[in-house]
Amino acid sequence: MIIPVHSLTELSIAAQQIISTFADERIFLFYGQMGAGKTTFINELCLVLGVHDHTSSPTFSIVNEYHSDNGPLYHFDFYRLKNESEAFDLGYEEYFYSGNYCFVEWSEKIPNLLPESYVTVEIKVSENQHRTIYIEKK
């Protein structure tokens, strides 16, 4: 699936489309260069899923938990991890295998710990600052 995004107002529609298309999936891995809009897009997904809390990047806490109309939702940012054992220390598997939504930034830091099934969401920025979102179930 490919979704072009020309403005921030289109993110909500893209988020709704992804959640409805991948209704049975719970693990979403986000890829894109620094500043591509991964966290901004995750915020839109959280709104679609009924999160009423303020959402923000978990860069320093590594994981943020939000309460939604669908139960707890987890947002990870593994950018600061030095190795995969740090993910074990925070108990990543309890989150990943909880059956709740998990939105993961910088999953390339934990390649050996990824579950068998997940959805990749790659955000690419063009020269004119428009985004294209590429989504694929793995």
Low-confidence stretches: none
Task: Count the E strands.
Answer: 7
Major sheet description: 7 strands, mixed
Quickly give the CATH architecture. Answer: 3-Layer(aba) Sandwich
What is the CATH C level class, in words?
A: Alpha Beta
CA radius of gyration: 14 Å
Overall body shape: globular
Kindly state the mean pLDDT as a whole number? 92
Count of spatially separate domains: 1
CATH T-level topology: Rossmann fold
Structural class per helix/strand content?
A: alpha/beta
Pfam family, one: TsaE
Organism: Sphingobacterium olei
Subcellular location: Cytoplasm
GO cellular component, one term: cytoplasm
Describe the overall structure.
The protein is an alpha/beta fold and 138 residues long. It has a single domain, classed as Rossmann fold (3-Layer(aba) Sandwich), CATH 3.40.50.300. 23% of the residues lie in helices and 30% in strands. It is built from 4 helices and 7 strands. The chain has helices spanning 11-21, 38-48, 85-89, 92-96; strands spanning 2-5, 27-31, 63-68, 71-77, 101-105, 119-125, 131-137. Strands 1-7-6-2-5-4-3 form a 7-stranded mixed beta sheet, with helices on one face. A hairpin with a 2-residue loop joins strand 3 (63-68) and strand 4 (71-77). Keywords: ATP-binding, Cytoplasm, Magnesium, Metal-binding, Nucleotide-binding, Transferase, tRNA processing.
